Amino acid sequence: MPSYLPEPPFTHGRSIARVGLLLVNLGTPDAPDTPALRRYLAEFLGDPRVVEIPRFFWWLILHGVILRTRPAQSAKKYAAIWQSEGSPLRFHTAAQAAGLSARLEAAFPDNPPLVRYVMRYGQPSLGQGVTELKNAGCDRILLLPLYPQYAASTTASSQDALFSALARWRHAPAVRTVHHYHDDPGYISALKGRVEGFWATQGRPDVLVMSFHGVPQFTLHKGDPYYCECLKTGRLLAQALGLEPHQYRISFQSLFGRTEWVKPYTAPLVEQLARTGVRHVQVLCPGFPADCLETLEEIGMEVKATFLNHGGEVYHYIPALNDDPTWLDSLTRIALDNLGGWLPAPLPTAEEQAAQKNRALEQGAPQ
Ligand SMILES: C=CC1=C(C)c2cc3[nH]c(cc4nc(cc5[nH]c(cc1n2)c(C)c5CCC(=O)O)C(CCC(=O)O)=C4C)c(C)c3C=C
Ligand SMILES: [Fe+2]
Ligand SMILES: [Fe+2]
């Protein structure tokens, strides 16, 4: 018999009518040390959406080999990027949630959607976020994954976690999920602004590399759209920046295990660029809206060393969107597009109010 979490008795006309917004990111360890990494990797790599190997066989490899060696190696990498505020992935995600919340409060001052950020693996957990929203009276929840490109290993996994969290409640809220926004004009234009802002201080590179997290190649052949969505993001961004084909590359990083992953791989690509005389490379990671281990350590340190050790001269990692205001405006709009019918019309923003006033003045309205 299922045992549900406690709730007050149902009463007619109880006006709980709040929308909750769960901003979900991948997750991160609680500390850059071996025990914390072991806990985090056990949860992450134990998810059948992440490693698609028959369970018993994978359990033996994971617990017999990987969790005995990888946690210590990964802890060293995390230590290199850890800040006084903690894991970059977590504090950037928290800042994004705060920015989203402030924008929604300004647009819906009477009953703003309640925003919580959660992690698919680690803390704050998705179950904890759902409980907080539920206890605050949210009867409708929007899941907004911080993955612009859909992948079964990320987006679908966070949906799975949401539905298992809801299975603990008798009176489960209504839910909606954001599927992807890889080609959203606001997302592309925020990336464009990020790159052009970087060029304004550091100059333009010979080649801009757009590096996305990889996935095993077989997932593409089994119907996962992730690879194609990454290529589309890259193409749209290159068009927005006015880049010629020889001025950019799209590649995939963060390989794991022995199977073939989607190609080209970032590190060998950057090495080949250096060997063939490219002197100045900049790398952007459009699939990571928040800086994390994979951007700061792998791209910012490891791939940089590869480029410089093979004859490259100038290498820059362009920081992720993080709490860039243009990005947070776009993220808010993506949320609102997916909340259609759940909220009243938003109040106009200060810019919209000013534009309305100017239009009225142009049309001869008294000042
Ligand atoms: C951006 C989307 C991501 C996809 C797709 C993805 C797939 C994927 N990842 C692994 C294995 C690992 N990934 C690790 C870190 C990591 N992965 C993502 C994002 C995606 N992963 C992020 C944002 C991070 C960084 C988290 C942080 O704390 O900063 C790690 C852990 C680090 C390490 O030990 O190397 C592993 C392992 C697989 C197997 C996979 C898809 C099949
Ligand atoms: Fe990953
Ligand atoms: Fe990595």
Helices and strands in order:
Elements: E1 18-27, H1 34-45, H2 55-81, H3 88-107, E2 114-121, H4 126-135, E3 138-145, H5 152-166, E4 174-177, H6 185-202, E5 207-213, H7 217-221, H8 226-241, E6 248-253, H9 266-275, E7 280-284, H10 293-309, E8 314-318, H11 325-338, H12 350-362
Parallel strand pairs: 1-2, 1-3, 3-4, 5-6, 5-7, 7-8
Helix pairs in contact: 1-2, 3-11, 6-8, 6-11, 9-10
This protein binds the ligand C=CC1=C(C)c2cc3[nH]c(cc4nc(cc5[nH]c(cc1n2)c(C)c5CCC(=O)O)C(CCC(=O)O)=C4C)c(C)c3C=C and fe (ii) ion (2 copies).
Which keywords apply here?
367 residues; alpha/beta; Rossmann fold; four-stranded parallel sheet; 12 helices; 8 strands; 14% strand; globular; binds the ligand C=CC1=C(C)c2cc3[nH]c(cc4nc(cc5[nH]c(cc1n2)c(C)c5CCC(=O)O)C(CCC(=O)O)=C4C)c(C)c3C=C; binds fe (ii) ion; Ferrochelatase; metal-binding
Short structural summary:
This protein is α/β, with parallel strands linked by helices and 367 residues long.
Structure description:
The chain has 367 residues and is α/β, with parallel strands linked by helices. β3, α5 and β4 (174-177) form a beta-alpha-beta unit. The chain has a domain at 185-318: 3-Layer(aba) Sandwich (Rossmann fold). The strands form two sheets. It has a four-stranded parallel sheet with strand order 2-1-3-4, with helices on both faces. A four-stranded parallel sheet has the order 6-5-7-8, sandwiched between helices. It contains twelve helices and eight strands. Ligand L6N33NVT is lined by residues 26, 28, 50-51, 70, 74, 87, 89, 147, 151, 153-154, 213, 215-216, 254, 256, 287-288, 292-294.
